[in-house]
Amino acid sequence: MRKYLVIYEKTKTGYSAYVPDLPGVIATGKTKAMVEKNIFSAIQFHIEGLKEENMRIPKAHAESEILEFPL
To answer: pLDDT-derived band of residue 51, with 50, 70 and 90 as boundaries?
Structure first.
């Protein structure tokens, strides 16, 4: 089992998501729940394709942290 960082962004029309460690894996949705479902499916599809082509499945390297700044 692998864990990948997913970045979610609010857009003018809904949400988008991408996976820094899996270039090209992106998803969109009108709601956060929809984009979560779509990015999960996109990751699965990508990994299945890599396996079918006998390609290396990338390890996760990306990390995140929230920093607070006094304003």
So the answer is: very high
Instruction: Identify the CATH number of the domain defined by range 7-52.
Output: 3.30.160.250
For residue range 12-24, what is the model confidence (pLDDT) as tens digits?
A: 999 999 999 999 9
Domain ranges of the chain: 7-52
**What CA–CA distances, in Å, run from 59 to 21, 32, 35, 48?**
7, 26, 23, 15
Residues 6+ apart with CB under 8 A from 61: 21
Strand partners of residue 8: 17
